[in-house]
Amino acid sequence: MTETARPDLAPVSDLSAAQRRSPWRYFFVGLAIYYVAVAAVGFTPSYLEFVAGKFPIEPIVHLHGAIMATWLALLIAQTSLAASGGIALHRRLGVASTVLAPLVWIGMCVLVVNALHRDRPAADSFLYDVLLAQLSVILLFPLFFISGFRARRRPEVHRRLMIFAAAVLLQAAIDRMMWLPGITLPSFWGHTFWLLTLTLSPLVAFDLVTLRRVSPVTLGGVAVIGAVHLVCALLWQNPAWHAFAFGLTAPLR
């Protein structure tokens, strides 16, 4: 995926004084803060119930939450540095992301394994459908992160791919917003719709305003997420998938 850089979207260090006053360079900072808000809306009710003693949360889940929060904090820091011209520190923190990203991925995998071992679901359990959603994030996050890291010398490609890496992590938060239409376990398309709408429609709007078109990188990322979610939707509540997953996870029960 390639992207033609525009002068008004170039790294801050290359901008003129007039261009540095453009508010658009702060768009990705605002988007990162917005992602924190989405995560808070999704997870706060569960943590409030935990504090009230109504909802148990295992220590491993707290650790996973801390890692995810650190990732979002790093996203805010990185977008802020890029917008303000702190490119040198931005690049140094980028090295730190190569340590944190594997921890994010490992944490997700550990939670999945722990849940399957703890619940020991039967072959017809809806938890195998939930597993599909979890596997989609486990696949998509490293795909976008690694692609974004490799594209770090192409800022317009790099920052969009990093936004996609963060966006897919919000799936679990959105899945908890049961008040949204279509967020129900018997279906999967509602989850796909709200993930794309809540996390990526601002990026599409940004592209249309600043580029007068949707960036090929944005289109490609949406297509990849759509393709993975299509597979999930086709396998959702599929007896053959349940039987396969039940056999595959037998050592965990």
What would your notes on this structure say?
The chain is mainly alpha-helical and 253 residues long. It is built from ten helices and no strands. The N terminus is likely disordered.
Please, how many helices? 10
Helical content stands at: over 70%
Report the sheet with the most strands, covering strand number, pairing sense and barrel closure: none
Number of strands: 0
What is the molecular shape?
Answer: globular
Query: Can you write the helix and strand succession as a string?
Result: HHHHHHHHHH
Provide the residue-averaged pLDDT: 89
By secondary-structure content and strand pairing, the structural class works out as mainly alpha
Q: What percentage of amino acids are in beta strands?
A: under 5%
Q: Rg from C-alpha positions?
A: 19 Å
**Regions with pLDDT < 50 over 5+ consecutive residues?**
1-19
Distance between the termini: 42 Å
In short:
With 253 residues, this protein is mostly helical. It has 10 helices and no strands.
Salient structural properties:
mainly alpha; 253 residues; disordered N terminus
List the helices and strands and how they pair.
Layout: H1 17-20, H2 27-51, H3 59-84, H4 87-119, H5 127-150, H6 155-169, H7 171-175, H8 189-210, H9 216-235, H10 239-248
Helix pairs in contact: 2-3, 2-6, 2-8, 3-4, 3-6, 4-5, 5-6, 5-9, 6-8, 6-9, 8-9
